[in-house]
């Protein structure tokens, strides 16, 4: 019987698109006419009128003709076409703005006693606007951070700082916070009342939610210092601004909002969402802190059954095995020392060690700072190593909590869904997680999934050689594990005969090299199984070899086509080089001596260089032609893709590259013989220019040559 894990299931992990949905003018519950054109339009339903006509923006008056004589009567007449605010606002709404929207209701006595309309109704010159078009200057200023224009607009239209100026019901503070306008926000907050900072848009997001998404900590500080209740107000989908910052990976913002958020409002569900979001955005320092505060979260899972370790097992780039490093970065990576903090508190960088306390620590820190500026790429590699170390520490901490959980005390870990991250890590090729889990609980080596496949079966299916290489460390146990068959009666060699996933198939370039890689996998798995397994048939009556041929028939055709096209193009270039080099040998630079027929400059060093490079270029181009010709006339059997065809391709490309270099050397020598004495100054520039074609060819074709040689002659896919 499968053991049930913790009953705590959470499903509230909304995405950014759910929290900030795109504005659709054709929503079923909305009225396009009233939301973008006119406020005098009458919607069909009471609910639509409440939320679309008056709930989205301040009540505006109907157009009033600019008449200086009867401005008061014009306003009074216009009031007859309006509806009091308190009759339309839904008092049951949970938005903080609904509680004080009533304050904007019309005060007829106040308006009639003045010579101009009340400041509660923003005026655009002599007209009372009826659409969002009036707020367009303020909207543009908020986007650009132009406070001067915004201030001018706000002075002309008092109260506009609280107006809903977009279809999404955002205010100028929402727009400027999302646009990272720090100065704009600072000045705008000074003009607003404390409670006005709590205004929510159509999706119930406050301006602090937009600031959290922007990642500018100073903007959030300006708002929170003015209104300390903002971090408590939940936005769209009921999430906190802290969750939004975490979901977008804003590290500094996350630590700040966490420090100002009242922990009493954070439920266990909130902590779980924060943990999952922090792992998804590589904020492992914050994830470790959350886990230290709530250790029980290690066994909690969403409705999809995934725990935090499930999510982490999919983060290939967070571990050393999946980090893409250049040649120089791989050289300096092992020499960079990283010390992680023992406790993770509210700070922007928790990955470095604590403040130095001894002279030795001061010396080491000083040397590290000097190296950071002197060694190119040091800081980038250091950040990657810190990330790798934090991710590995989080794996260890999560697994320790899983092993010590109450669920494990009353059940078998092998049968528990909590051990499923082992297969996820095998699928995504993260040996660090697999090694850690097997080291702590070796019996997981025998665990199989619902299809009766072990972790090595999974590794072969998804072509994860780093996981597969672990099979050589288990001794004779591999003979037992490799004999497992799945529900389709496929043994481990059948899985190697299946076509690899597309993302793993395109690790190497060219269909021919992809076919070679598939053959290497099949042959490698064939070495570790018992001979009897090679002849076992699956549920459809196919042996592993038959399945391989059937699955790779299309790839073999593509490989044949790719090789022929490559060979044809390269052979054309080789033929041209052969022709040029052959002709140059009989038309030597400087001419021949009429008395004996020998070249005039035969005894000079430059002529000897010319003759040698010309001969080598001729011979190498001829070899290249023969190699490419053999490729064109090959039979293209499956076995030929393993060694024969890649070998010919690598030799052909290498000799072609060599012939191009020798041709350019011969050209330089000829140029020096003819013009070297009269135009000596031009020899060096011409030589440098002559290097450009060789370098260009190297950049374009050298990666293909390296892939071919490494797979054919090198350690190959299964380097151990």
TrEMBL record:
Subcellular compartments: Cell membrane
Disordered: annotated segments: 1-22
Protein name, entry field: PGG domain-containing protein
Domain PGG: residue ranges: 560-673
InterPro entries found in the cross-reference section: Ankyrin_rpt, Ankyrin_rpt-contain_sf, PGG_dom
Keyword line: Membrane, Transmembrane, Transmembrane helix
GO cellular component terms, semicolon-separated: plasma membrane
Membrane topology: Peripheral membrane protein
Pfam families named in the record: Ank_2, PGG
Regions that span the bilayer: 570-589, 609-632, 653-673, 679-700
């Amino acid at each position: 019987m499968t053991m049930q894990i913790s009953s705590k299931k959470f499903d509230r992990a909304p995405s950014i698109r759910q929290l900030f949905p795109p504005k659709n003018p054709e929503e079923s519950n909305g009225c396009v006419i009233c939301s973008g054109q006119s406020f005098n339009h009458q919607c069909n339903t009471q609910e639509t009128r409440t939320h679309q006509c008056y709930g989205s923006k301040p009540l505006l008056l109907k157009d009033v003709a600019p008449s200086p004589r009867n401005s008061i009567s014009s306003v009074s007449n216009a009031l007859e076409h309006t509806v009091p605010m308190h009759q339309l606002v839904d008092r049951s709404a949970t938005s903080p703005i609904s509680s004080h929207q009533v304050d904007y209701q019309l005060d007829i006595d106040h308006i009639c006693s003045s010579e101009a309309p009340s400041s509660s109704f923003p005026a655009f010159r002599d007209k009372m606007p009826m659409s969002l078009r009036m707020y367009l200057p303020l909207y543009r200023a908020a986007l650009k951070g132009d406070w001067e224009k915004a201030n001018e607009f706000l002075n002309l239209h008092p109260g506009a700082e609280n107006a809903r100026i977009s279809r999404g019901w955002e205010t100028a503070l929402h727009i400027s916070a999302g646009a990272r306008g720090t100065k704009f926000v600072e000045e705008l907050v000074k003009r607003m009342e404390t409670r006005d900072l709590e205004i929510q848009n159509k999706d119930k997001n406050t301006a602090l939610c937009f600031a959290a998404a922007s990642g500018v900590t100073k903007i959030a500080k300006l708002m929170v210092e003015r209104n300390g209740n903002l971090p408590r107000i939940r936005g769209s989908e009921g999430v906190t601004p802290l969750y939004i910052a975490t979901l977008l990976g804003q590290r500094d913002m996350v630590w700040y909002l966490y420090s100002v958020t009242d922990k009493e409002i954070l439920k266990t569900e909130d902590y779980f969402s924060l943990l999952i979001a922090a792992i998804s955005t590589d904020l492992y320092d914050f994830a470790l802190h959350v886990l230290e505060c709530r250790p029980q979260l290690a066994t909690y899972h969403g409705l999809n059954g995934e725990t935090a370790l499930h999510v982490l097992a999919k983060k290939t780039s967070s571990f050393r095995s999946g980090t893409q490093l250049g040649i120089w970065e791989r050289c300096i990576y092992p020499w960079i020392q990283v010390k992680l903090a023992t406790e993770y508190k509210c700070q922007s960088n928790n990955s470095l060690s604590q403040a130095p306390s001894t002279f030795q620590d001061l010396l080491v820190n000083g040397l590290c700072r000097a190296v950071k500026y002197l060694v190119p790429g040091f800081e980038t590699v250091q950040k990657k190593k810190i990330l790798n170390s934090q991710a590995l520490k989080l794996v260890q901490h999560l697994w320790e909590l899983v092993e010590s959980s109450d669920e494990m005390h009353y059940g078998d870990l092998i049968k528990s869904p909590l051990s499923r991250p082992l297969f996820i890590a095998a699928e995504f090729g993260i040996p660090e997680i697999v090694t850690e889990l097997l080291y702590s609980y070796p019996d997981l080596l025998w665990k199989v999934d619902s299809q009766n496949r072990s972790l090595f079966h999974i590794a072969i299916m998804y072509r994860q050689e780093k996981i597969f290489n672990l099979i050589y460390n288990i001794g004779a146990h591999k003979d037992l594990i490799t004999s497992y068959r799945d529900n389709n009666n496929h043994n481990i060699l059948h899985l190697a005969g299946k076509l690899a996933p597309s993302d793993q198939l395109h690790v190497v370039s060219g269909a021919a090299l992809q076919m070679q890689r598939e053959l290497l996998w099949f042959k490698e798995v064939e070495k570790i199984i018992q001979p009897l397994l090679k002849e076992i048939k699956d549920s459809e009556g196919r042996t592993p070899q038959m399945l391989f041929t059937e699955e790779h028939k299309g790839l073999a055709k593509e490989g044949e086509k790719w090789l022929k096209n490559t060979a044809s193009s390269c052979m054309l270039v080789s033929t041209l080089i052969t022709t040029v080099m052959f002709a140059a040998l009989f038309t030597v630079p400087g001419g021949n001596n009429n008395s004996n027929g020998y070249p005039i400059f035969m005894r000079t060093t430059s002529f000897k260089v010319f003759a040698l490079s010309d001969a080598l270029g001729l011979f190498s181009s001829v070899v290249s032609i023969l190699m490419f010709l053999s490729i064109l006339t090959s039979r293209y059997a499956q076995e030929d893709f393993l060694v024969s065809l890649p070998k010919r391709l690598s030799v052909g490309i290498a000799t072609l590259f060599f012939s191009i270099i020798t041709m350019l050397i011969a050209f330089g020598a000829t140029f020096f013989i003819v013009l070297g004495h009269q135009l000596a100054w031009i020899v060096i520039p011409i030589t440098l220019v002559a290097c450009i074609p060789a370098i260009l060819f190297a950049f374009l074709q050298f990666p293909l040559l390296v892939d071919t040689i490494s797979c054919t002659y090198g350690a190959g896919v299964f380097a151990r």
